[in-house]
Amino acid sequence: MLAKQNFVPHTDHENRPLQLHSLRLIEKANAESASNYLKFIKMTENALTPTRETPRSVGLTLRSPYDTTVPAEGKEVIRTHPQIKLPEGCYGIVAPITNKASFYHIGRGAGDIDADFRGNLSVVLFNNSKFPFIISRGDKIATQICERIYYPELDLVDKLGDTTRRRGFGSTGLN
Questions:
Q1: What are the boundaries of each domain within the chain?
Q2: Second CATH level (architecture) for the domain 39-148
Q3: Are 95 and 59 in contact (CB under 8 A)?
Q4: With contact defined as beta carbons under 8 Å apart, do 43 and 83 qualify?
Q5: Strand, helix or coil at 147?
Q6: Among 27, 35, 68, 116, which one is least packed by beta carbons within 10 Å?
Q7: Mean pLDDT, the chain cut into blocks of 10 residues (175 residues total)
Q8: The pLDDT of residue 131
Q9: Is residue 53 within 8 Å of residue 72, measured between CB atoms?
């Protein structure tokens, strides 16, 4: 992280705009560096620290803080017990663990984390199989992903521009 430099204003008006510009760049770099962190606290002693499995993993692995079971053809809400503050300009997504979905038919629901959310980070798991799914403390249950967000203003208009797309739900073809 860049450190703020001591800025001493000069009376020389020719150099002052350049110095102010340099100070703004330093402040911007400091703000951008600070915003690259996902801050968290452990709400209980059972909370496990989210982990990045590889240097290029798309998200952070969330693990169950306790033993539980997702009933056959049922659901379970697992509170992971970290409280998070997402990086500035981001929102979070709770994504499924690939092998849990493909091998065990475990899906997840309710996956968006608003930028201003500060509650207990929870994971909703759905068991789409006919067998109970046993989860032990420390098992991977989801991936938490940060994505950049844009907050558009709403504009009610009389007509939207045409496109070549027909409808939704398969309108671009099956293959």
A1: 39-148
A2: Distorted Sandwich (2.70)
A3: yes
A4: yes
A5: strand
A6: 116
A7: 45 53 59 74 95 92 96 96 92 90 86 92 94 95 93 93 73 60
A8: 95
A9: no
